[in-house]
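Example record

Each entry pairs one chain with its bound ligand, MRU.
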Amino acid sequence: MENTGKNILEYDTVALNEEGDAVVILDQTLLPGRTELVSLRTAQEIWNAIYLLQVRGAPAIGVAAALGIYVLSRGIETEEFETFYGTFREYKEYLNSARPTAVNLSWALDRMEQKALRAGREERRPVEEVKEILHQEALRIRQEDIEVCRKIGEYGLTLVKPGDGILTHCNAGQLATVKYGTATAPIYLGQERGYGFKVYADETRPLLQGARLTAYELSAAGVDVTLICDNMSASVMSRGLVQAVFVGCDRVAANGDVANKIGTSVVAAVANYYGVPMYVCAPTSTIDRNTPTGREIRIEERPPHEVTEMWYRERMAPEGIKVFNPAFDVTDHDLISGIVTEYGVARAPYEESLREIMGRKQRES
Ligand code: MRU
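Structure tokens for the complex follow.
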């Protein structure tokens, strides 16, 4: 699709097409230069889109997987539930293998599986009805993401004041979710209410989500945003330009350790040194109480060419050089001032506060 002059925030990051037979994503690998929507119909197309980061960001990956497994379920031709479920499981495991760190991927797929099992095995509904239940559940997961991000924005906004400087890393913006983003939600709500924040966006090597996506979407919203290289956070913080750091996350362990885009832990250490509060914005779908600490979180490693060649006009490292390219790192809970969820802000000790937040979620849902 050609550029239409539409604001980037008017596009859906991830949605189901009208016929319900394709997941439509905004291809984030082409931004900000080109705006293209891509329709995904097969398991391999959905897997590739997640692996290649055409759709990315923990919540958006979860939504894409939920919509994706519904699309794939539609195509399973049988009237016998156990046969349907066997193929459903194969699709589920395949999609789940696309990226290991963001827990939202398995969270969304597990939620879809539970719906299928309840309807098909326990309630013995016909397969056609099970498919419709999966359809509704996938749309609900997508809709909930919007509401959850807005609530994170409201809680996040209580942590800052008008005119504050805010630093963010990677893209935990609208492009990483369905709307508002997580780390950017307080910024968007502040923008609606005239807070006049000054945002510093780290460029986020090696895939440049900060430069290509965060700087793009925030400036499209009229936010005062300044792009900095990853190694400049100490420079802006030492000058007193940053009053708070907001980042998103891919998995929160039970003790409050957080996996997020590589470089987040460096920002956290620098913020800690300069006395700047470090807030992690996390929908409860990103909290993984089955993982005790950050040490148990599996960190995705990506191919060397992302570091040595991608984005450069010519190769910028010697041929054959060894490259270490972990996509995420773990920030120790000691460096985190608060974890902002849709049920409030969790504070240390996180073991307790996260348990309390998950309990509240269970009681209210
Ligand atoms: O590799 P990416 O671009 O999917 O990594 C994204 C991040 O690390 C985000 O900060 C995280 O998923 C939160 S998005 C609301």
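Residues 53, 56-59, 102, 170, 172, 176-177, 181-182, 209, 248-250, 260-261, 327 surround MRU (CB under 6 Å).
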